[in-house]
Design goal:
Structural class: alpha/beta
Low-confidence stretches: none
Strand content: 25-35%
Strand order of the largest sheet: 2-1-13-12-14-15-16-17-18
Mean pLDDT: 95
Oligomer: single chain
Bound molecules: 5'-O-[(R)-(benzoyloxy)(hydroxy)phosphoryl]adenosine
Largest sheet: 9 strands, mixed
CATH class of the largest domain: Alpha Beta
Radius of gyration: 23 Å
Number of helices: 18
CATH architecture of the largest domain: 3-Layer(aba) Sandwich
Number of domains: 3
Shape: globular
Number of strands: 27
């Protein structure tokens, strides 16, 4: 196990093995098994590229060899920032084949996040594209490498010429091995990949997912969701996110012999075209994206006969939208309440109508442990809301290299405090009713309030800042900031956004409203009273909604 990752207690590890949850197989060896089972069936579809299961196995093996020849070794970590494409899958599996763990960044992340994560994980290389949607990722990669001394190689897809420490990622993933190399046997209880949590404090926390636990994550999910060789899964949201990667996602599709199709954007046009062209049966959405699809489907009276299930998660979905979406898209809506930290809940096909519409489902595994506790740490009475705590075979026992944070994020006996407030019904279904973590959920993208507060407080105009969500009909929540200015200073929302952008953070984290106030309200112990600020924002939004001037 890599230094800084927390192992499960040995007796539980033993139980998970004997119960068959942990199979002791490195993820990078799975393509061989899949190839033996599914041979010449199509595994991946990306534009005009089609890759069969047999080809996938060969290409993972040769990419792993090329990575080894390049000097990557078991125990190394690698930053990966790629859009939705087949190269992402090849790279993740090739890394897993040789015990190199990719840190899966979202395309929206920027220099500041890359530098922080590169330093935190001691990454030895960074893999990205030359440009995506007009953004120069290659230039960003060079800036990041200057600030992260451990990075000694840049792997850039579509890079113009290979020079010095820069290698063409496409060539590395597409060409037969340049030289032979003996490949190591990775330890299946070691880290296979790193996912990012948005749900905590400060810069994104890193979650080390082992081969054993992540393989169960997507295999178990695929079983619960009924994935099989007929499944055509469309990756429309970022495939580096746990929802699309492994819940059951692309990897769950591959483990089931289905086809995983990639599109670069979740726009209704791109998604509907792909559904029609490839006969897509399953795909994942966050509520904000689902609403865009519904609106477009209604406007164009589109018919999508192949579509069977749209999975919706990342944020609470109202029951009314579940009903309407099922009608408009003429398919089943499956609710998914998951987290990069592990626990996944799914509504099931045979659920009652009530459970399917009103709840966010129940845990994927019979060995997921659930507690719902009150402020005193006591289990709440049945049906009463409380904080959700969890442990289980695919919920790691700590964030990577974060001992300080782990003391509060986990209990002494290994329960992960999700920060989500839930109710649980007699059948074990969970309803998410709120959260106690200081996070903004902007259309499914999580933003830690204190990360933005710190960035705002670094601006010379600002004496103090508090970041809170404000309600929004499209995205559910957006980022708002209350700021106290220093004597004689002024600052507009536009200026603040410009300055934060220049500091190199992902655009989705930028405040969209800035409210200048004289002081921030305080709690009895002298902390900023976030509750009061949240109420203030909600009241303002309610007043606005009631005011005819704002109705359209
Ligand atoms: C997914 O993962 P993350 O890590 O981006 O965010 C996790 C958090 C949860 O703790 C919860 O606060 C919220 O997102 N959340 C939901 C939800 N699904 C996630 N809140 C209400 N209702 C839901 N259905 O978001 C994620 C990972 C795997 C599968 C699906 C979602």
């Amino acid at each position: 196990m890599r230094h800084g990752a927390t192992a499960w207690p040995p007796e539980l590890a033993e139980l998970y093995r004997t119960e068959g949850y942990w199979r002791g197989l490195p993820l990078g060896l799975l393509p061989e098994q899949w190839a033996a089972r599914y041979g010449d069936r199509t595994a991946l579809v990306d534009g005009t590229t089609r890759i069969t299961y047999r080809e996938l196995a060969t290409r993972v093996e040769s990419a792993a060899t090329n990575l080894t020849v390049l000097g990557l070794e078991p125990g190394d970590n690698l930053l990966v920032q790629l859009p939705n494409c087949h190269q992402l899958v090849l790279l993740v599996l090739a890394c897993a084949r040789i015990g190199v763990a990719p840190v899966l960044l979202l395309p929206a992340h920027r220099e500041r996040e890359l530098v922080a994560l590169g330093r935190h994980t001691g990454a030895v290389a960074l893999a990205t594209t030359a440009t995506t949607r007009g953004y120069d990722h290659a230039a960003q990669a060079r800036r990041v490498a200057e600030q992260v001394p451990s990075i000694r190689r840049l792997l850039i897809a579509g890079c113009e010429e290979e020079a010095g420490t820069e290698t063409d990622l496409d060539a590395l993933l597409d060409s037969p091995p340049v030289l032979p190399a003996a490949l190591p046997d990775p330890d299946p209880s070691d880290v296979a990949l790193f996912l990012l949590s948005g749900g905590t404090t400060g810069t994104p926390k890193v979650i080390a997912r082992t081969h054993n636990d992540y393989e169960y994550n997507f295999r178990g999910s695929a079983a619960v969701c009924g994935f099989d060789t007929g499944t055509v899964y469309l990756a429309a949201l970022p495939a580096a996110h746990n929802f699309v990667l492994g819940s059951p996602g692309v990897l769950g599709t591959l483990a089931s012999g289905g086809q995983a199709v990639f599109v670069a954007s979740p726009s209704p046009t791109a998604v509907f075209d792909a559904i029609k062209t490839h006969g897509v049966t399953h795909l994942a959405a966050v509520p904000a994206v689902l609403r865009r699809w519904m609106e477009s489907a209604e406007r164009t009276s589109i018919d999508l006969p192949s579509l069977r299930v749209v999975q919706v998660g990342g944020e609470r979905l109202e029951p009314e939208t579940v009903r309407r979406a099922a009608q408009v898209l003429d398919c089943r809506i499956q609710q998914v309440f998951g987290m990069a930290e592990g626990l996944l809940n799914y509504t099931r096909p045979d659920d009652s109508r009530w459970a399917a519409e009103e709840t966010q489902g129940r845990p994927m595994s019979p060995h997921d442990e659930i507690r719902v506790i009150d402020a005193n740490g006591e289990e709440t009475a049945a049906g009463e809301p409380g904080e959700l705590l969890t442990r289980g075979p695919y919920t790691p026992r700590g964030y990577f290299r974060a001992p300080e944070h782990n003391r509060t994020a986990f209990t002494a006996d290994g329960w992960f405090r999700t920060g989500d407030v839930v109710r649980r019904d007699a059948a074990g279904n969970l309803v998410v009713v709120g959260r106690i973590k200081d996070v903004i959920n902007r259309g499914g993208e999580k933003i830690a309030a204190d990360e933005i507060e710190h960035l705002l407080a670094e601006l010379p105009e600002i004496a103090d800042a508090a970041v809170v969500p404000y309600p929004d009909p499209d995205l559910g929540e957006r980022v708002g900031a209350f700021v106290v200015l220093r004597e004689g200073r002024t600052l507009s929302t536009g200026e603040a956004v410009q300055r934060l952008t220049a500091s190199g953070i992902a655009a989705y984290k930028l405040p969209e409203q800035l409210w200048v106030v004289d002081t921030l309200p305080q709690t009895a112990v002298g902390k900023t009273d976030k509750q009061a600020l949240r109420r203030l924002v909600a009241d303002r939004a309610a007043d606005r909604a009631a005011d005819p001037q704002y109705q359209h």
